[in-house]
Each structure stands twice: as structure tokens, then as C-alpha cells.
Amino acid sequence: MYQLRPLLLFSLGFLVTAVRGDNSADSKNAIPDVNFDLEGEHAGELPSPWEGPSHCVSGDHCLYSNPEGNDHNGQVLITTSNYAYFTATFPKITSETQISPDSFHLAPIPGKGNGFVAGRLIKKGEVIMQRQPSFLVHADAHIDMKPEVQEKIYQIALSKLSKDAQEKFLSQFGDGVRAKIDKNSFRIVIDPSGDKESGHLGVFVDVSGFNHDCRPNVHYRITNTTHTTVAVRDIHPGDELTISYIYGIARRSTRQKELQDWGFECTCSQCTLNSLETAASDARVKEIKRLEEEIEDKMSRRGEDIKPEMGGKLVDMYLEEKLFAYLAPTYVRAALIYSMFGNEAKAKEYAEEAVDALTREYGTHAKDIQSMRELAADVKGHWSWGIKVVSEEKEQKTWKLGQGKGKKNETGEAGAKKERKIREKIGKKAGKTVKEAKAKKDEL
Ligand SMILES: *[C@@H]1O[C@H](CO)[C@@H](O)[C@H](O)[C@H]1NC(C)=O
Ligand SMILES: *[C@@H]1O[C@H](CO)[C@@H](O)[C@H](O)[C@H]1NC(C)=O
After folding, report:
1. Region Disordered: what ranges (predicted)?
2. 398 CA closest ligand 2 atom index
3. 257: Cα within 13 Å, side-chain hemisphere
4. Mutate to test the pocket of ligand 1, among 130, 189, 223, 224 (most ligand atoms within 8 A of CB)
5. Cα–Cα distance for residue pair 368/432, rounded to 1 Å
6. How far is it, in rounded angstroms, from Cα 349 to Cα 369?
7. Chain centroid to CA 360: how far?
8. What DSSP assignment string belongs to 271-298?
9. Ligand 1 pocket: which residues have CB below 6 Å?
10. Quick count: other Cβ atoms within 10 Å of Cβ 24?
């Protein structure tokens, strides 16, 4: 992979001027094994086969390694004892089975270096690969370490990976180990509570075979430290497998700017549409955002004037715009709105799509999967069924639930509570993807 992976670099933008150590060999001596402090809460407690802490530098940052990780290609961490402990004890993600590695292969792609190409029909929803980071470094350490010390500890860390993993690491874009991390890493928040202090940079050497496309056929997500890629539509033999390095629901000029910030020209099919098609695409993106905001806004005002078709229209626009990697929140919202308006067939259809899309985009543990399963299995028994969102004046009295059999009508407080619940839920879904992306940007 010879291109940047900018999505993950946002935290590093200010590093550009950081002094870089020279790669030269005048400092062949290994870094002295610093007398590291064993007071870290979990020092020395990592479960086998984890090794370390060994080399400790700048504060509490030490080297840890797991020779058996990534199918014996090894994993190295440069981090604090606490984060090492977190990483070493994350539950194994066993629920998804990746496809056999001979289903796709690396091949030269015109203008892009190498990329993955499907060797057979890969069906929508198939898990392409799941990997642990080969090389994971605490962002603070990557930023703060003295360049010459860093160069050395990075070399030592790299030497603990298998030959194959080392070769893959070194074949990535970037001049020197540090630059390769800058240009190819994914940002990973280790602390499950989301504490930003726990931001790490992870390099997944096998993942570097995915080139960028603004309308990718593969979605990726990182759960704890596991990187999972899933096909979001059928991929035919000979087609390239792509992921998006940026948030794709944006106008072409915005997407190109974001990619340029990281030094590369967007030449994907969506960026090279003719001017008519580009105008149509940009207009659709604008309308998608407008409609999402409208739904969110109406939901926040008690759902007045919401129309059931709004949910379906959004889904159609997402599909037309080929936003196959971002469908889950849209399907969830459409299913709930149709259920709310008592359209059983549509609610069921979208709930079924939602279950699949949630599984692809967020994994089998996704929060809303259970609720969408229940909705698909028994629309009329679902809490959202037939809720008429009413105007404020009537709210107290006319809360009407249930055209379904055996449904109680709920009035007063219980009803109002349910109404709040559905409003929050749909309102949130409506803005979720956009908000998530904005939040990500705000983190910079
Ligand atoms: C991620 O790690 C946390 C903490 O170990 C754990 O509670 C959670 O279940 C993990 N998530 C998944 C999907 O395994
Ligand atoms: C709800 O049920 C009560 C009796 O339990 C009935 O008086 C009332 O009209 C019903 N409300 C609606 C909106 O159906």
C-alpha cells in the first residue's frame, strides 16, 4: 500500500514539524536497558505469552511483545503498563469468522501500487479479515520521545515481529519507521471508557493492502484493538477491495481537500465522475444531510410533521449515492418511523435490513441488533408500533399506543416516557453518522 491513510492521522497533524531522528547506524548500540520502574499497576502481570516490560523510555513507556499474536507474526506494544494490561487482556473476538485468505490476493492496481483483488465472489456481509495491531504505540510516546531514542526502540520493537511482518511493515509508504507509523496507523482508544489519554497508533500490516475509495466495497471497524473488515456489497472476482480513509458523506471538494491534506490526489471512481454526475452526487449528499437534520429537528419537537416516507427516502438516497458502508443508522431510523406510523410491511423490511447492516458495520455485539430483531419478528409487538407522536398540547391525553392485538393503550406518564424514548432514538439515529464524524474531527 503506497498511499496515505489519513483518517487515522488526524491526531498527528501537528507533528509535521517534529524533529525526526536520522535512520543512520551511528547509534548501533542498543538503548541501555533503563532501570524501569515496576510500580506500574500491572507491571509483570501480563498473561503468557506476553513478554515485557523490557526497554523503558520516557516516563512509564515500555516495550511489550507477544510472539504468538497475529498468527505467530507477532505483536509489539510501546505503552504504559496499564494500557499494556488492557491490551493483553481484551476478550478475544471469536464471533466472526474471516474468509479464507485465498479468496483475495495482492496485485498491481494501475496508479495505486498494489491492492487486494477478489479471487472469487465475496458476498455482502462476509468478514474479510480480523487482525490485531502488529505495532501499537501510545500516541504520547510517539509524539514526545526523543528522536534518537525513538528510532532505536522502534527498531528493537520491529525486530520482534516475524520476518514476513517486518517486510510488510517496511514496504508501507513513508520514510523510516516513524513516518510509516504517521502515514499508515489507525488511531485506537484503548480505554473502553473512551478516555482520550489512551489514544494509541496501531499499524496493521495486512490491512495496508486496502486502497482508498470514497464509495468503498469494504467497511472497517476497530473494536478494542481488533481491526475487522467486512464486505458491504457483493464483490466480483477481479474487483479491487477498497476501504475509505475519510468520512465519505461529503461533497467531492471536501473529500478531495481532506485527502490532499495528507498528500494524495483522490482518483477513485466517485472523485472522477464527470461534472454532471458530480453535481448530482454533491446535491444528493446535501439533500441527505438536510433531510437528516429535518428529521432530527422534528423529532426534537415532538415529531410533529414527520412523514413516514422520510425514512424510506433517506434509505433510497443512501443507496443511490452508494453509501453502502454507512447504512445501519439509516435502516434503523426508517424501521422505527414506519413502525411508529403503523406500516407493518415496511417496518419489517427495514428492520431486517437494519440487523444485517448493524452486523456489518458495528459487529455482532451492536447495541440495536436485538431491538431490530424483535421488531422484524413481531412488528406489532414492538414498543415503537403505532406510536403516534402528537402535538404538545395534546400530549398528556392522546397518547395512543397499539393497533396491535393485546396492546394496552397507555396514557399519561407511561405514554409520555415511551414517546420520549422513541423521539430520542429516532432523533439520534438521524444525526448519528454526521455527528460521529463531526465528533471525530473535533477531537483533532
Ligand atoms: C472490549 O473490551 C472490554 C474490556 O475488556 C470488554 O468489556 C468488551 O466486551 C470488549 N468488547 C468486545 C466486543 O469484545
Ligand atoms: C384508553 O383506555 C381507556 C380505558 O382503559 C379508555 O377510556 C380510553 O379512551 C383509551 N384511550 C385511547 C386513546 O384509546
Report:
1. 398-444
2. 13
3. 5
4. 224
5. 13
6. 14
7. 11
8. TT--HHHHHHHHHHHHHHHHHHHHHHHH
9. 90-91, 93, 192, 223-224, 365
10. 8
* Helix H or strand E encompassing 37: none
- Over residues 158-182, mean pLDDT: 92
pTM reported for the whole predicted model:
0.77
Q: In this structure, are residues 431 and 293 in contact, taking their beta carbons and an 8 Å threshold?
A: yes
Domains of the chain: 6-248 (2.170.270.10), 275-442 (no CATH)
Beta bridge partners of 188: 200
Question: Bridge partners of 137?
Answer: 78, 201
Query: What is the CA(12)–ligand 1 centre distance, in A?
Result: 27
Per-residue pLDDT of 251-293, as tens digits, reads 998 988 888 876 677 888 888 899 999 999 999 999 999 999 9
**How are strands ordered across the β-sheet holding 56-57?**
56-57, 61-66, 75-79, 135-138, 199-203, 186-189
